[in-house]
Backbone:
């Protein structure tokens, strides 16, 4: 998100660790554009040193299923660097702005 903010975009995360309401992302943030960045359990552990179990990861995916379904842009980040993710997201946002 910092990378997007640095490029003039107002970006916020919508992780739903504490919400069982699938559409809570809409109520909390009401985004103009929803971007869903996907990552495997293994990569979450490696990249962020998260202290969660595979079951907790699966629950997070379950809680975010509505957001994934309604995302304007979906990106599997497993094989990408942070710079590549930022580049692809900015490219998408620039294309969206032009349309």
Residues:
């Amino acid at each position: 998100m910092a990378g997007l903010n640095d490029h003039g975009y107002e970006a916020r995360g919508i992780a739903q660790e504490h919400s069982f309401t699938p559409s809570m992302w809409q109520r909390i943030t009401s985004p103009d554009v929803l971007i869903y960045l996907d990552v495997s359990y293994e990569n979450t552990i490696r990249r962020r040193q998260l202290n969660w179990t595979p079951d907790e990861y699966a629950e997070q995916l379950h809680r975010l299923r509505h957001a994934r379904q309604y995302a304007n842009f979906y990106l599997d980040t497993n094989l990408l660097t942070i710079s590549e993710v930022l580049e692809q997201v900015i490219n998408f946002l620039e294309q969206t702005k032009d349309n």
Q: What stands out?
A: The mean pLDDT is 86. The radius of gyration is 14 Å.
